Amino acid sequence: MNDSFVLKGDVIFNEDSKTMKSVKGGYLVCEKGKCRGVxxxxxxxxASLEIFDYGNSLIVPGMTDLHVHAPQYTFRGVGMDLxxxxxxxxxxxxxxxxxxxxDYARNAYSYFAKDLQRGFTTRAVVFSTIxxxxxxxxxxxxxxxxxxxxxxxxxxDRNGVPxxxxxxxxxxxxxxxxxxxxxxxxYENTKPILTPRFIPSCSDExxxxxxxxxxxxxxxxxxxxxxxxxxxxxxxELVPDSTSYANAYDKFGAMGSAExxxxxxxxxxxxxxxxxxxxxxxxxxxxxxxxxxxLTSGIAPVRKFLDAxxxxxxxxxxxxxxxxxxxxEILLCIQASKMYYRLVDQSAKPLxxxxxxxxxxxxxxxxxxxxxxxxxxxxxxxxxxxxSSMYSxxxxxxxxxxxxxxxxxxxxxxxxKYVRGKKIWG
Length: 426
What we know:
The protein is built from 13 helices and 17 strands. By secondary structure, the chain is of the alpha/beta class. Helix 8 (272-281) links the parallel strand 12 (263-266) and strand 13. The strands form 4 sheets. It has a 7-stranded mixed sheet. Strands 5-6-7-9 form a 4-stranded parallel sheet. It is globular and about 60 Å long. The chain has helices at residues 84-96, 102-118, 132-145, 169-183, 204-217, 229-238, 245-251, 272-281, 289-294, 302-307, 326-343, 353-365, 398-407, and strands at residues 5-16, 19-31, 34-39, 51-61, 63-69, 121-127, 148-152, 154-155, 190-192, 195-196, 222-225, 263-266, 284-287, 311-314, 382-386, 413-419, 422-425.
C-alpha cells in the first residue's frame, strides 16, 4: 500500500489541549505520510486517492508512551504490594540481570515488540538494560515493528545488584560509546537516547560524562525524577549540595534543552523550584499514573504542570505500570487528577477528558515533532477503533464514544494502525 490514501469513518482529534474536533463519517486524508486534513466531504483534489471505508469505527490519532521499560514487560502485574526501592531490588534488578543472555533477551523482547505493535502506541520512549548487545536486539525488534521509538541502553555504576552494575563510570561510559558506534546508520525509525537510570544508580562522574556527551553529540536524555519520597531523600544524601532532585540533574547537565529535550518520568514531588527548572530546560514530564498508584508513590500535580506551561505526556512505565494500554492510562490520568484535587489541593482542578486525551496524543507526540493530531502537515499516525461491542440503547456522539472507549477499554478492538502513513497492524 502506498503512503497516500483516504480513511473514512468517525474521526476525532484535539485542536488544542482543551478542544476536540469530531467529524462523523469524515474523510481523513494522508498524502506521502502526512495529514492533509479532515473533511465532511472529500475535496476534488483528493478524489483520485484510494478510500478505505471503516464505516462507523472511530479514527483517532496514534498515542505516545513517553516512558516504558522493555525488560520489565516479562513480570508486569507482579509485586504491586511493594514501594519503589524495595520493588526494584526484589523484582526489577534481578529480572534485568537475565539480559546478559542474548537468547533470553531475544525471546523477551520479541514479546514486548509484538505487544507494542498491536496496541494503541504508535510512538514510544523505551528503557533497555545495561547490556549492549541485548539493547541492540531490542532496537532490531522495534525497527521491524513499525512503531517509532527512542531506545536507551541503561547506565548504572552504583547501588545495583550482582550482575546489574557496571564496574566504573569509565566502563559504563565506554560501553555507551560502543553502543552508539554499533547502531550508527542502522535504523530508520529507532533512535538512541542516553539513559542514566536515576541518580542513585549513577555516580557523579558518570552523570557528568553523560551530560557532556549529550551536549557534544546533541543526544537526548531520559531518566526518573522525584518519583518516591524515599528516593528524593536518598538523592539529597548522594548530592548534598543540590537544592532539589532536578537541581542535581542540572548540575550534571542532564536536564536537556529546548533543542535537545530530556524526559523525566514521574515528577510526583516536584515543587515550584523543580517546575521552574523543568520549564527552563524544556524538559518533558512523563506522567505515569498507574505506576504511581501501584507502587504507592503518590499523585503527580499534573494540573500545575499544565498551568505552568510544561510539556507533559503519558507513560505506562511497565512494569510498575501493569499494562501498556494507553486508553487505560488516559482514564487513570483523569482519576488521579480528581484525587489530587479532592485530597491534596482544591485549587488544582481535575483534568478534563479533552486534556487527558491531548496529553496521550499531541502532548507526548510533540516529543517526536508534529505528531499526535490530524492537523495539516502532521505525521499521519492513526488508530482505527471498533467500539461496536459496547452495547447501548443510546445514540452517542463521537466525543462520547471515545470517552466511553477509555472508560471501557476491554470492549475496544484495534482494527488497524498507521504510522507515518504506513499500515503496521490490522
